[in-house]
Amino acid sequence: MMNNSLCIKTEGLEKAFGSVQAVRKLDLEVEVGSRFGFLGPNGAGKTTTVRILSGLLKQTNGTGTVCGYDISTQRDEIKAATGLLPETPGLFSKLSAVEFLEFIGALNGRNGDKLHLRIDKLLAILGLEGRQDDLLESYSSGMKQKVLIASTLLHDPQLVFLDEPTSRLDPAASALVKELILILAEETGTSFFICSHITSFVEGVCDIIGIINEGQLVIRGSPQQIIEVTKTRNLEEAYLEIIGGKVDRQALLTWRSV
Amino acid sequence: MSHKWVDIAKAEFLVLTARFRRHRLAIIGLLFVIGIVWAVYLAPLLVELVMNALSPIIPVQGLLMLMFPELMRAVMMLMWTFILFSSLSQALQEIKIGQWEIFLANNVRTRDILIGTFLARVPICGLSTLFFAPPLLAPFLLTYKVSLIGQLMIYGVLVLTMLITVWLSNFLSAAVQAKLGSSPRGNSIAKAIAILLSFILILPVIGLQLFAQQFAAVMGLNLFVVFPFTWSADLISWLAIVFNGINLTAHQIGVFQSILQFDILTNTLFIVVFGCICVGIALATTDRVFTYSLGPRMETITTITHENFLYRFIRRITPNAFGALVVTSFKDFFRKPQNLARVALGLMLSLLLPVIVILAYGQRYTLELSSVIPITGFGLAFTGVLVFSGVAFLESRDQLWIIQSAPYGTSRFVKARLATAFLIAVPLSIIPTASLTVITNLSLIHFFGLLAYGYLLICSAVILGTGITALGPNYEDMKSPGYTRNLMISMMLCLVSTMMVPLLLGMVTRRILGVSLTNLMLAIGIPEEISTAIMPASILLVLGVVLLLVGTWKLGRPHT
Fold it and tell me: pTM of the predicted model, to two decimals?
C-alpha cells in the first residue's frame, strides 16, 4: 500500500551488470519534502540507483515506488513527476540555452508563452541572461551545468534527482544552487535526492543522508546523527570513518624511489 | 639518444590496429603474407581467368593495348586519390589536438610527431595497396607480358608513390587539424570536409565504371602531366613497355611516346624531386604546422537572433509542443556543417541521377516511364539513406539519458526527427524527378507521379535509416563501428528491397504461375508503371515502418 508521506520507497533493490553487483539489497525511504543526500565513493552505486529510481534502468531484483508510482510498471508516470540532472552533461551543442530548454519543455509536453517566461526567469536566476541566446558549444562546463539544472526544474517536478549537481560549479554558483534547493524545498515542498562526493555541500543542504558503499546502504540519518554515531567532528570525517580512506603519508612518495 | 618518433609510431600503430588487440602483430603479419600471395599469384590468376572469359565478348586485351597509358593514369589517379583523401578524410573525423598537447608537453620535437605518425600509417596503407593494386595492374602486366624484373620495378614505383602520398596526406591532415583546432566548431567543419572528401573519393570510381573510355580520353590530355600521379603512371607504362614480352614494334612505342610526353628518366626525376620537396617542406614547416591555436575564426560565439520564415511557418501550422520539437530538431540538424555536407551530397547525387539513368538505358531521349522507374527508385532511396542514415541524431549517450528522462521522450523525439527529415526530402525528390522529366520528355502527369513515387521512396528510406539508427544508436562519431554498421545495413536493405526482392518475386511468379509479375498485375487491372513503382516502394516502406517501431520501442525502454 502506498505511503503518502514517502516519495521514495525501495525494498531489496538490486542491480547487477554481469558479474558486477552495482546495488545490493537497497532498502530506502525518503520522505516527501525532504532533501536526501546520497553519499558514496566512485563506483559505489549512486548513479545506478538514481537511474533505476528515475525509470531509466531496469533493476535486477527488488521493488520500489517513486512519487507513488511503481518503478517496474509506471516509468512514464515517474518521469512526468520527477526531474533528473544527469552526472555528465548531454546538451545539444548547436542549440542555444533558450532553445535547449524549449526542447526539454516540449519533450515534457509544454510550450508557449508560459514556458518561455519560465525559461527566461530560470536563466536570469542562474546568471545566464546575457548568454542565453549563444550556442551551448561556447559555454563553459559550469554554464552547461547551470542550463542542465534549469532543465531539471523546468516542468516543476515533485521530486528532483541531482547527480553531482555542483561538481563543475564555482563556489558562488554552488552557493546559488544550494539556496535554490533550500528555497524550493521550503516554499514548494519539492523533494530532492542528491548524489554527491562533496560532503560540505551535502552537510549544508540535506536534512537526511544515506551513505552507500559497494552497492549497500551503510548508514542513514541526519548529518548530526551520523557525526555522533561515528564520534567525529564533521561529516567529512564521518564519511572517511565509514568508507575508509585514511591517507598513509609515508606511502605517497614510495613511487619515487623505484 | 632516444628516438621519440619510434615511440610515437608504436603508439599510433597500436591505435590504428586496436581492433586486433593482443594478436595485432600476428594478424598484420598474416595479412601481409596473404597480401603477397594475392599480389603475386592469386590476383593475376583471377584477372587472367576473367580476361579469358571476357575475350570472346569484349576484346579486353585490344582495348587495354589501345588505351594503355591513359587507363594507367586513371588507375594511378584512383589509387592516389584513395590514399590521399581517405587518410585525410579519416584524420578529419577525429581532431587529435589533445594528443599533440601531450606530445608537446613531453618535450617531443614536432618532426618526431610527423615522422612517427607517418611511419605508423605505412603498414596499413601498404596493406591496402597490396590488396587493391594487383587487380588493377594485373590486366596491363598480363597484356604486355611484363618480365619479372619489370614487374618488380613497377611495384617499386608503386611503393614509392604510396610512401610519398602517405607522407603528403599525413602532413596535410596535420595542417588542416591545426588550422581547425579542437573547438566544437572546428570539429564540425572537419566532419563536413570529411564527408565531401569521401564523395571526391568515389567520383573516380564512378567515372571509371561508367565512362571508362571518356575517362581515359580525358586522362590522356597534356593537362594531366602536371599531376604527380601521372608521373608514376607514365613511369609504370614505360617500365611495362621496356620490359614487355610481346615484342612491341618501334612504331607502337612511338605512339605511346607521343602520349606519355616525358621519357623514363624525366618521370623518375619528377617523382623523386616531388618526394624530396614534400619531405623538405614538411620538415621545414613542422613547427608552424603543429603550432595550433583555436584562432578567432573558431572561437566565434554564435548568437541566435531571430527565427527564419520556415521555423515561424512550422510553429504556425503546429502550435503545440510537437511543433516546437520539430523546430529545434531542424535547428540542430542544419547548424551542423556535417549535416549540410550530407544534404549537399544528396543534392549532387540527385543531380547525377538523370545522367546515370540515361547511361543505364542508352542515349535515348524518349524513355518509357516503366524503364525509368526502377533505377530512379533505387537512386532516390539510396540518396535518402546516404543523407539521413547513420546520422547520429544523438551527440552522446548522456543526451539519450536526458531524452529518456522525459515521459514518452524518445518516441516524441523520433517523431520530430522524422518530420524534419520528411521536409528536407522535398527538394531532394523534386530536383531529380524534374530534371528526369525534362530530359526524357515525360508528361506533367507523369512528372507528378514520378515525384510522388520518388518522395515516397526517400521517406521510406528515411524511416528505414531512422529505425536502424534507433535500434543501435551511434553518437556523432563517423569513425565508430556503429556509424559504419548503420549506414551499411541501411544501404544493403535499401538495395535488397528496391531491386532484389521485386526481381525475386518476378522470378517466383514466373516459375510458379508461368506469368510475369507485371502481366499478373495487368491482369488484375494495375498498369505496368504503377506495378513497377508500387513493389519496391511498398517493400521498403513496410520494412522501414517495422524497423522504426521496433527501434523506437528499444530506444525508449529502460536499460538492462
Answer: 0.75
